[in-house]
Design a protein that fits this description.
There is one protein chain. The chain starts with a strand and ends in a 20-residue tail after the last strand. By secondary structure, it is of the alpha+beta class. A hairpin with a 2-residue loop joins strand 4 and strand 5. Helix 1 packs antiparallel against helix 2, helix 2 packs antiparallel against helix 3 and helix 3 packs antiparallel against helix 4. It is elongated, with a radius of gyration of 27 Å. It has 4 helices and 10 strands; from the N terminus they run E-E-E-H-E-E-H-H-E-E-H-E-E-E.
């Protein structure tokens, strides 16, 4: 029996550097959004697109109902994506872009984001820092274990826990290469 080999580059296993920090930022963002809704403003009025909205402050961060819902939604998306490596990286990139764009719009507008989300300087700082951190986290790789490389340059494919994924039996005939044309009784 021979093992299946391929000339593909080795795939990295190992530990994801993105999953843990993305989950922590998601948990913090979800907690900020929920606590902001409970203890600060729950006013959902808007003055879009060029009006001014104000809200209450929670630990120095100003926000109205829409601001707190945006923080909670971003945190929830990060937490839902965090269990798997590619999900954590994808959600970190998407939420990071949204937070970063929100911070830039708030910087240019002054007191809010498009007349919908109330902000102050601390809100802009939190949105911008979280956006940059999430975009950086979305670029982090897995580290650790590599697959075994055979001397002839091919990669031996192994499954989880060091088992072989598939064993190819060289003595088997290919599917559809039967030489008999009878019924099932003829094959016995």
């Amino acid at each position: 029996m021979a093992t299946e080999t391929t000339a593909a580059p080795p795939r990295r296993g190992g530990v994801s550097l993105a999953k843990g920090p993305v989950a922590l930022i998601g948990l913090a963002s979800l907690a900020l959004g929920v606590l902001g809704l409970i203890f600060a403003s729950t006013d959902f009025t808007t003055a879009a697109p060029d009006g001014t909205v104000n809200g209450g402050t929670f630990i120095g961060i100003e926000g109205n109902g829409w601001t707190w819902v945006a923080f909670a939604a971003g945190g929830l998306l990060l937490l839902l994506g965090a269990p798997i490596h590619w999900g954590a990286k994808s959600m970190a990139f998407m939420v990071g872009i949204a937070y970063g764009v929100g911070a830039l719009i708030a910087l240019s507008d002054g007191t809010d984001i498009l007349g919908i989300f109330a902000t102050n300087n601390w809100t802009k700082l939190i949105l911008g820092a979280a956006g940059v951190a999430l975009i950086v986290l979305s670029t982090l790789p897995r580290v650790g274990r590599r697959r075994e490389v055979v001397d002839d340059g091919t990669v031996e494919r192994r499954g989880r826990f060091g088992r072989r994924d598939r064993v190819v039996d060289e003595d088997r005939e290919p599917v559809g290469a039967t030489t008999h044309n009878g019924t099932l009784d003829d094959r016995r």
